[in-house]
Amino acid sequence: MPRRTKQSPLTPEQVEVLVSTIRTDILASLLREHPLSIRQIANRLGRSPQGLYYHLRQMEQVKLVRETRAPRNVRVETYYQPVVGPHALDELQNHAGHREKLRKHVRTGLGVLLRNHDRFIDAAAEKPELLNMSKFLWGQVRLAEPDLMEVLERAQALYDFLESCDHEDGHPVVFLGTAIPVVKRP
C-alpha cells in the first residue's frame, strides 16, 4: 500500500473507496460521533443496515474505519469508529484524484441513464398514457447555504422514497438529480 504523504493523509485506495457518496456519508457520521453500530449509522443516514455492510467492509479494507468494542451496558453489536481524523473529508474535497474519479463516476452514470432514457422514451411512446406521466425538469437557481443543505436533504429523501417504492411488477422509471454548488472563478 502506498505511503501517505504530508500533503495527502489519504491513500489513493482510500480516495477510490470514498468516491461512493454513501461511504463519504458513513465516514461523516462516524467522525461526528463514534463508536456507532451499523444500526445507528443506518438510522442517521435513513437507510437499511443491510445496505451498509458491504460499504463498511470496503472502508475497513482500506483502513478508513475499524471495528471496535461496544460501549459498556450496550447489547452486543459490532461498533465502528473512524481510523482517519476529521481532516479526511476536507482533504477528500481538495484531492484532484478524487474529483477526477467522481467526474468519471458521474459520467458513467449519466451515460447509462441516457441510454436507458432513450430506450424508455421509445417504449413509452407505445403507451401514450405513460409518456403523459413523464416529467422533465431542468434549472439553475441561486441558493443560500442553509437552503442548499435543505435541498440536498430533500433530494436524498426523494431518492430514498423512490427506492422504497421499487416494485418488480412496476413501470421502470428513470430519475436523475444533481445539486452541485458552483464557484465563480475570477
What general outline do the C-alpha atoms trace?
Answer: globular
Number of strands: 3
CATH architecture grouping of the largest domain: Orthogonal Bundle
Mean pLDDT: 78
If you had to describe this structure to a student in words, what would you say it looks like?
This protein is mostly helical and 186 residues long. The protein has two domains: 12-94, Arc Repressor Mutant, subunit A, CATH 1.10.10.10; 96-164, no CATH class. The protein contains eight helices and three strands. It has helices at 12-17, 21-32, 38-45, 53-61, 87-94, 96-125, 128-132, 145-164; strands spanning 36-37, 65-68, 79-82. The longest helix has 30 residues, at 96-125. It is globular and about 60 Å long. The two termini are 39 Å apart. Residues 1-7 have low confidence and may be disordered.
Show the helix and strand layout.
Layout: H1 12-17, H2 21-32, E1 36-37, H3 38-45, H4 53-61, E2 65-68, E3 79-82, H5 87-94, H6 96-125, H7 128-132, H8 145-164
